[in-house]
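Workshop exercise sheet. Pairs work together: one partner reads the sequence aloud, the other fills in the structure field after running the prediction. Swap roles for the next sheet.
Pair: D.N. / O.F.
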Amino acid sequence: MDSYKESNKLNVLSSNIPKLMISPRTRANYYSSPESIMKYLRSSPLASSGSSSSAKSSFRSSASPQLKTPLKVVEEDVLVVDGVLVASDTNILGSGSSSSSSGTPGFYKTEICRAWEELGHCQYGSRCQFAHGKEEERPTYFPFKSKPEAQMYMSYSSPLSGTYGSKSKSRLLHPVMETTAIMTPKDSTPRPYYPSRNFSTPTKAEETTNSFFTPQSEHTRLTANFTMKPKISKISPFTIRPDFGAATSTNETDWSPQDDGIDVTLPSLSGKTPSRGDVDAYIDKILYGPATRRRLPVFSAICPETHYRFSKFTIPHASTQLAPKPPPVLKTAPVIVIGGGLAGLAAATRLKSDDIPFLLLEASDGVGGRVRTDVVDGFLLDRGFQIFITAYPEAQKLLNYNELNLQRFYSGAKVYYDGQFHTVADPLRHFSDSLLSLTNPIGSIVDKLLIALTRARVLTKSDEEILTTGEVSTIELLKSIGFSDSMIGRFFRPFFGGIFFDRELETTSRLFDFIFKCLALGDNTLPAKGIGEIPNQLAAKLPSNSILLNSKVVSVDFEDSNSPSVRLESGEVLKSEVGVIMAVDEPAVDKILAGRKRPVQTKKPARSTVCLYFSADKNQIPVRDPVLFLNGSGKGIVNNMFFATNVAPSYGPADKALVSVSLIGLFEDVSDDDLTAEVIREVSGWFGASIAESWKHLRTYRIGFAQPNQSPPTDLMKNPNVEPGLYLCGDYMTSATFDGALVSGRRAVEALLKDRALARV
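Structure field:
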């Protein structure tokens, strides 16, 4: 009777305490007071029959060693037991413990005892050299150690004493399974529902005072509580229920390891991040599939093997708060470069040349930033209208032009004005064409002479002088030089407006002079494999393990001002040992450094563009020359266009032509279809409807941040060092050109090296 009272007190104590059993290997107890101490006992059938001595004896012989010690469990702690432990170290068991005949601590028995399997008991008890299939091995078997115990439990009848799974052997439920979790499959196959039961028969008075049971016959309670109760969940196989008969209630929430930020790796997915459904399916397979000693993946991730075979983890419950996310992983790198565009790649190139290890983090799936090329239906589509000028001084130092296989444009343009095209040509390269163009309506003869004088002026200045001299807007400079309105409106607006994405020509005169100088010294070109080949060439020269793609940076932290750390969107934290170089555009810098005090700068709207691509049959294009077409009419939305396959035949299939049309602005209020229709209507006036309407639309690129706005006032030689250990680079730091991005990357590294005294610069 003492044993019964002790067991009943345990039930009463637990009646208002939600408890959860995730699997036969797991027990979770939630206590209203941290001081509560409960002994987790693997109860014997004699424990509820009134024999205290028998219960103690049974416990000593049958319980696993780790279940023998009283445990103080605070709220939300879950104890995880894994495998069939046959022996443990003596300091756990105590000197008088005998749990296995193997004599080897920490070993598992690998085969089930046939006598125990068939009869439910074994005459050798705990001394048997074979495993007796404890709950961890056979969830619905009892850990019988003697024949009387088995016979006692065989006297009970219940629906669960029949088949369970694929076998028809008698598998009775353990009598003191205090808690349950309904593991429901994703199909409609019913599974047993295990309610809380105490097999001791309470007295009438006890039935009245015990909130755990309602007054009814023992037979009625046994039958009701062991009925198969399938409940199908459409969301998850885990549904948490309160104890049978308890007054408490919980919301039926479905828990998955990902809810607590637990990283789960499944062997079948080879390191890929599994979905919630994958994890649920795997757990379901482990629980209800063939017997296995593998640990559930969620346990493997957060419960390392320990000497005492116990680990703790937290599980969300209706009445508790969610567990905190696991601490982020901390890695180190000497220098961290954020951004894989031209500026970031130039910085990495300089670091490599000084033998300084680095890690480059790129948020997207490839390097290049805004300088990328896509392949669509066999065509090479640059992301927006971009041309490469061979005279860029920094590019000449870093790039191999022969490997890029640069394809040249015609040195001039064809300007559409007054219903026809007029040629504007460089007199030093196309002298005869320039003579024929002296009398056309695209500027006067004086305008052509002023172009020659402007050319001589910029060629006498160094790049640094050009980028630091006094400035005005480009439109003011052209007017001060003396160019006519016809020359400005019909040539300079569409030509330099297409380069700056600024038809109003408000861009600084410094940038105009720099581009004019580069055009005088070099050619407009396209790499044979697309404009994206430029960053690809730079990346190919870097160590293969130095670039991480799909690694978006969300913040830069300054716990130690001399070596900031970088936090990724994934939660991973990377610590720099020397410094961090941010090679992203200015809006991204503002986002990553949100909350940091930075010099207040006047924000200017970014330059934007739309680029539309069309495919055409080779016989459906009007010219074969690699020339740029400009809209000098001052009407319409098209600014410039060209036939890319005329410049670089590799941009399309052999029998096809690629048409590129550029607009200035984003046209956010116009749909792609309407924009395409308007472009076709407009260029039909240039080349004829029969030609333009036969073109097939391939893709439209809307580039919201095509270039930083560099209207006066500007500083094209900004100091890259913004804080100790933090450096900025990008075309907004220098000139908004390919060359400016490359220069800014180099200058950021030079500033870092100078500050850290790592190299002479």
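Discussion prompt: Residues 738-756 form the longest helix (19 residues). What would you look at next?
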